[in-house]
Automatic annotation (TrEMBL):
Family: Belongs to the Gfo/Idh/MocA family.
Domain Gfo/Idh/MocA-like oxidoreductase N-terminal, chain residue ranges per copy: 2-118
Gene Ontology molecular functions: nucleotide binding; oxidoreductase activity
Domain of life: Bacteria
Record's protein name: Myo-inositol 2-dehydrogenase/D-chiro-inositol 1-dehydrogenase
Length: 334
């Protein structure tokens, strides 16, 4: 198959390497608004660079992977759908709920296939936890505890256009909670704080946040995150049931030290960043996309899935700003 890649930045270059070696991908063409960047990535991999996004769309592709800047996602998805191409796009679908709803309607009307990049769905630990939940061996769930702790904050220019902590960072936790439990979120209560760089507050954002989600069956999910966890990149999920409990992310590279006497675990080097922690998951989700393009599997993460998680993020941001519980019904559109 011939695939196109729009975006050759950090995650785009990583995806390019994965796609270039993926089974069934005979040709990979890379484009970026920074033409020299696309050419450099293509030269490093021995594949082809397009001179522009327009040229990429004229290349008779079988599918398109979008790893461009967030503000380009909606337009590129729509353009690819109109060209009859299966699409993989990194989250978010669009920068706001209205834009996401508009893309979803366009995709549904066209009967198109658009896979959204929530890579935790392809991580071995999360997959095993989901299977355990679905087996019933945990009994009924009462609590989930999710954390996403970044080792260092992103630059100010990124924060200004990120959409805020819940939409940019915690949305991964929201998606995995929905996917793992099979339950939707009914209500949220969220708070946030700023004790680090001033540019978070200046952008109307926070550097640390927590939220309590009430799922439709009454299960409670606690989601916490920060931009300041210098010990390392720490992503975990605890799933607590009436009969048993499991955890994702408890491996020897966990950036958390025990103060108990004689306990030396974990002893490995901490994960420095998200691409190290989820290296295999990122590769697996793109392999899944090639299978989707070939028609060998169903879409594993739809635009509708992304919208549901975005609704949770939107409700959390409203809750944080207004200091009150927010039902998901308040932020739903359409």
């Amino acid at each position: 198959m011939k695939l196109g890649l729009a975006g050759a930045g950090r995650i785009g270059a990583f995806h390019a390497a994965t796609l270039n070696s993926a089974t069934g991908v005979e040709t990979l063409i890379i484009a970026d608004t920074a033409v020299e960047r696309a050419k450099q990535v293509a030269d490093d991999l021995g594949c082809t660079a397009a001179a522009s996004i327009d040229e990429l769309f004229e290349a008779n592709l079988d599918g398109l992977v979008i790893a461009a800047a967030t503000d380009a996602h909606a337009e590129l998805i729509t353009r690819a759908v109109d060209a009859g191409l299966p699409v993989f796009c990194e989250k978010p679908v669009a920068s706001d709920v209205a834009g996401t709803v508009a893309v979803l309607r366009h995709v549904e009307q066209a009967g198109a296939t658009v896979q959204i990049g929530f890579q935790r769905r392809f991580d071995a630990g999360y997959l095993a936890a989901r299977e355990t939940v679905r087996s019933g061996s945990l009994g009924w769930l009462h609590t989930l505890r999710a954390t996403t702790l970044d080792p260092a904050p992103p630059p100010a220019e990124y924060v200004r256009s990120s959409g805020g902590f819940f939409r940019d960072c915690s949305v991964h936790d929201f998606d995995i909670i929905r996917w793992l439990t099979g339950q939707e979120v009914a209500e949220v209560y969220a708070v946030g704080s700023n004790r680090g760089a001033e540019y978070f507050a200046e952008a109307g954002d926070v550097d640390t946040a927590s939220a309590v989600l009430t799922l439709v069956d009454g299960t409670l999910a606690q989601v916490a995150g920060t931009r300041y966890n210098a010990a390392g990149y720490d992503v975990r999920l605890e799933v607590l049931g009436s009969q048993d409990s499991v955890a994702v992310g408890l491996d020897d590279r966990l950036p958390l030290r025990s103060t108990e006497p004689g306990v030396e675990w974990p002893s490995g080097p901490a994960y420095p960043m998200f691409m190290d922690r989820f290296h295999d998951a990122y590769a697996a989700e793109l392999r899944a996309f090639t299978e989707v393009v070939r028609g060998d599997r169903a879409n594993p993460c739809t635009v509708a899935d992304a919208l549901e998680s975005f609704y949770v993020a939107e409700a959390c941001e409203l809750s944080r700003r207004e200091r009150r519980p927010v039902a998901l019904a308040e932020v739903r559109q359409g």
